[in-house]
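Question: does this match?
>
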Amino acid sequence: MGKRGILLVNVGTPDEPTTESVRNYLKEFLLDPNVIDAPYIIRQLLVRCIILRFRPKKIAPRYKSIWMDEGSPLRVYTQRISDSLQENLDQTVCRVGMRYGNPSIKNALEELKEEGVDELLIAPLFPHYAQATTETSFDYTHKKLNEIKWNPKIFELESFPDDENYILPLSNTIKPHLDENTHLLFSYHGLPLSHIRRAKKLGIPNYVDHCEMTTRSVAKELNLDESNWSLSYQSRLGPVRWLTPSTEKVALDLAKKGIKKLVIVSPAFLADGLETLEELDIEIREIFLDNGGEDLFVVKCLNDNQDWIQGFSTIVSNAFKS
């Protein structure tokens, strides 16, 4: 067995909570054809002439509201996952590479190469397969491997929407916050419907199916009746049609139906960031409480939870055997 290395890939984050830094990050992110599935000219016009003119100024204060002393929460928590995983695995080198922004995938690969790694696992930190996350992570990593002319033995981490090593730690983080009066909302990151249609046409893993697999696995583990949980999609961007129902609408409807206690979990994210700390814990909280809800709790992402690190260690160890 050669020396093992793991490249943990997450989406990315601005370097600073400023308009300029957010603009630079969004430019790289949104111009990726795997994210906005539109013809080149339309994508360029939409991003450069509309989104980048207005959205960075709006989003920068949101990042600032959650910024940590160590930096961006997503970067901090992803690094903690990497550090904990490396401590838990013998003779395995772990590095973080962001698909957009820093630390870059190219730099992470160069570090792994310098460490003498000859068996590399590319591990996107996304339990559910999607073109805008998993697929672009693999494609971009292979591109950078070619650029630096490195040819280790490659393994790719497959999606794990119902793997018990993921489901059990996830369920255990939710369980302490539930009682007979609580409704549980599973809020997943949204996708344009065009991505779902493309996946079906190509016969590749379907994101919606994966989200439902996770939801039903957790509901079964927690012995929840179907009336006690809901599923929604968050983080819509742009004018195209997205997956429904939206988290905003579901939170509003639940409040108006008389639900007083709401717990939200976002299983698509393994590390806390803007979508959980700000979008859910601030924006959705306000919607729910302003419309009759009384108590809302957002479950933290798994981050470096030790039960999860143990489970993830098993997942990645099994991936090296495939």
Notes: The mean pLDDT is 96. The chain has two domains: 4-158+305-319, 164-298. The radius of gyration is 19 Å. The beta strands are 4-13, 92-101, 119-124, 153-156, 182-189, 229-234, 261-265, 295-298.
